[in-house]
Design a protein that fits this description.
Structural class: alpha/beta
Number of helices: 22
Strand content: 15-25%
CATH superfamily of one domain: P-loop containing nucleotide triphosphate hydrolases
Helix content: 40-55%
CATH architecture of one domain: 3-Layer(aba) Sandwich
Shape: elongated
Number of strands: 20
CATH class of one domain: Alpha Beta
Strand order of the largest sheet: 13-20-19-14-18-15-17-16
Mean pLDDT: 83
Largest sheet: 8 strands, mixed
Distance between the termini: 48 Å
Length: about 725
């Protein structure tokens, strides 16, 4: 496969197999979850699916008895034996199945009431229902019922009759018309006015257990039976039918299949007897004609002998007559053999060609014998022909008499053309559901579905997946910060938010922030100002988290740092340092109400000063555009080695663009797999429109477990929670 064939990305990037494997490995928990869910669903399905059993029987089809019994030359008048496909359709016909339904009472249905959804699992003992009054009606595997009689009026066909066991062999019935009656096991229950009759042979179940009784339409019962019946020929040209029946009741299957086989055998016996009687009637109608033909042949022969005073044929004529009869008999035998060969072979088969050759020789011999008869004297030749006509008539008459006796036996016989080779027997193990196969298939589909979900999610997700995507857009990545431990706090918790640089100084997340500190130190060495603004496209990307920890890390490295909360709309940076909302700060200084010394607050570490927002003003953008802001930046730049301004999200307000014009550098914090590429494009467009350029970006909340980074670093999973805002 060429590289061009592997291109599937909009930018004609080749498919990276390693990247796909890395994505699958990163989403292994999701894949495992989907696979586990599929497996659990399969287990629920298996527990809630009753096993299916199969019973089998073998039937042998023999040659039609009536056709066998007809004399040669007349068998085709009685009709050909039905083909195998015809017998299969007869076996599946309403006549046979309807007889089986009536014999086995398959139109009677009496089953325990099962719980909704998980009824089969409860009945099989896989689940346990609490012994509550509302659930007492449902089967728990201890309910059994046997019907011995069920008669309903035509209007109740298919209607439900609810039976409730009351204990000690008694029960109550709720009939389709809403009436309630009582009965006892073994005692017939008859309602002549309604045309209803019932007899329960056996009833098991705790008091309160309910059963559903129903009389089904005979045609519907036969159709349902046909759906469970399968008939096929075993082997090729074996004339043996394999009949199988499937169902969930192993005790009912052999009995039902036996009823089907018996109904089929009975109709075959009836059909064979009818065919034999039909053949017998046909032959009996031919007997008088055959007798008349014999008498006429005798009269003609005797009359000719008397007239010509011819007593016998002589030795030569008798020999010709005997030989002609022998050749004709052999030709009839070959004709029968040819019919058998024609059903199996083509005329080019060696056996078929051999038969045709033998028939041609016999036909030539017969023609020669007949030519010899023409050389006999006229008297002998005529006696020969008349004697031959008499023998043929006597032979036909004799065959008809023999067939009359044979067909008489067949017509009164109880044997048909079908034999039951193997009685119905139940397979020892269920044929469905195949639990191992179903579970394996469910797990496989779950794994494939989970993998597809992960890959599709990655393709549809528009968030930044790694530093290389930002580098491709011309944005320098100053640092990649791993996701930090999540902080779970109650809403009424007024304590300061934890600062990662102080609570977990050895965290792998902090290493990225220290890397940012080093990069900024080098970048600001040639900048006109050491003031840095930190913004982000939207809230929740972690800009305040980066700004706070960067300030603490820089102060711990010996730099004099001032952290300014320039978000004059919310001012949440104070929550990290326990500063109250009413404390004077940036807004108060820009409004001329406080000096710089009055608004600076000491930080939690040495060399760190905090400048909060102060009281939130109604006109934050106008305050930031005043000359006082530029003077403040210059004053802080003179006093400190690093000044960090935490600004609002750039896509929400214009404040970051205003602040950025007075900064030495502008940083954008992007959240891994959250910040979308469209947001980055809009952010760059807004900043460039205000004359501000980004010095670089920080990729925050990076998850190395979802993607392999360029160096294959592995970190403790403790650092895999969401960073603070």
């Amino acid at each position: 496969m060429t590289a061009d064939a592997l291109r599937g990305c909009p930018d004609d990037e080749e498919i990276d197999l390693g990247r796909l494997l890395a994505e699958l490995w990163a989403g292994r928990l999701r894949i495992a979850g989907v696979t586990l869910a599929a497996g659990l669903l399969a287990l629920v399905h298996l527990a809630n699916t009753p096993p299916t059993y199969r019973a089998e029987a073998l039937l042998q089809l023999e040659e039609e008895g009536a056709a066998r019994a007809l004399p040669e030359g007349l068998s085709d008048l009685a009709g050909e034996a039905p083909r195998l496909a015809t017998e299969i359709e007869i076996l599946r016909s309403h006549r046979v199945l309807g007889a089986a339904v009536a014999a086995a009472h398959l139109d009677w249905h009496a089953v325990p009431l099962r719980a909704p959804l998980l009824g089969p699992a409860v009945a099989a003992g896989g689940l346990v229902l609490p012994d509550l009054e509302a659930l007492r009606a449902y089967d728990r595997g201890d309910a059994r019922i046997r019907l011995e009689r069920l008669e309903v009026p035509p209007g109740w066909i298919g209607a439900e009759i609810r039976l409730t066991a009351t204990g000690e062999g008694r029960f109550t019935l709720v009939l389709p018309d809403g009436s309630v009656t009582e009965g006892e096991v073994g005692v017939p229950l008859a309602l002549p006015k309604l045309g209803f009759g019932l007899r329960i042979g056996a009833l098991e179940g705790a008091p309160g257990r309910q059963f559903v009784l129903r009389r089904q339409d005979a045609v519907g019962a036969a159709d349902a039976l046909r759906g469970r019946l399968s008939v096929a020929e075993r082997g090729r040209d074996s004339s043996i039918l394999e009949v199988s029946l499937t169902g969930s009741d192993p005790a009912e299957l052999p009995r039902t299949l036996g009823a089907i086989a018996e109904a089929y055998l009975q109709q075959d016996r009836s059909r064979s007897a009818a065919e034999a009687q039909s053949g017998l009637d046909f032959i009996e109608r031919q007997l008088p004609e055959a007798q008349d033909a014999v008498a006429a042949a005798e009269d003609r022969l005797n009359a000719y002998r008397r007239a010509q005073r011819a007593i016998d044929l002589g030795f030569e004529g008798q020999s010709l007559l005997t030989e002609i009869g022998t050749v004709e008999t052999e030709l009839r035998q070959l004709a029968a053999e040819e019919e058998d060969l024609a059903s199996r072979y083509t005329p080019n088969h060696p056996a078929y060609r051999k038969l045709l050759s033998a028939r041609a020789r016999l036909e030539e011999r017969l023609a020669a014998l007949r030519r010899e008869t023409t050389e006999l004297p006229g008297t002998q030749r005529e006696v020969l022909n008349l004697t031959r006509d008499l023998e043929v008539s006597q032979q036909v008459h004799l065959q008809l008499l023999n067939r009359v006796q044979e067909l008489g036996v067949l017509a009164s016989s109880t044997l048909g053309n079908v034999r039951l080779l193997d009685a119905p027997r139940l397979k020892p193990h269920p044929i469905a559901p195949r639990r191992g196969r179903v579970l394996a298939l469910a797990l496989l589909l779950g794994a494939l579905g989970g993998a597809g979900l992960v890959l599709a999610g990655n393709r549809l997700h528009r968030g930044i997946r790694g530093p290389e995507e930002l580098g491709g857009r011309g944005l320098p990545v100053l640092a990649t910060v791993l996701i930090a431990p999540a902080v779970v706090r109650r809403r009424d918790d007024r304590r300061p938010l934890p600062i990662l640089a102080l609570t977990e100084p050895g965290s792998a997340t902090l290493e990225g922030i220290r890397s940012l500190r080093t990069t900024l130190h080098v970048a600001l060495s040639e900048a006109p100002s050491r003031a840095v603004a930190v913004t982000s496209p939207a809230s929740g990307d972690g800009k305040s988290f980066i700004a706070v920890n960067l300030a603490v890390a820089a102060a711990e490295a010996g730099q004099r740092v001032c952290l300014v909360d320039a978000d004059l709309r919310q001012g949440n940076l104070r929550r990290y340092f326990g500063i109250s909302r009413g404390t004077s700060g940036l807004a108060d200084h820009l409004a001329g109400r406080a000096a710089v010394e009055d608004v600076l607050r000491p930080g939690p570490v040495a060399d760190l000063a905090i400048l909060p927002t102060g009281r939130l003003p109604p006109n934050p953008s106008e305050l930031l555009m005043r000359p006082a802001f530029g003077r403040l930046v210059a004053e802080l730049d003179r006093r400190f080695d690093l000044v960090i301004f935490d600004t609002p999200p750039a896509l929400a307000v214009t404040d970051p663009a205003v602040i950025g014009r007075a900064m030495g550098a502008m940083l954008a914090v992007l959240r891994h797999e959250v910040t979308e590429t469209e947001e980055i494009d809009v952010l760059l467009q807004r900043l460039r429109g205000a004359g501000v350029s980004l010095a670089g970006v920080v990729l925050n909340a990076y998850r190395p477990r979802r993607r392999r980074d360029a160096y294959g670093y592995r970190y403790d999973r403790a650092g895999q929670a969401r960073a603070g805002a």
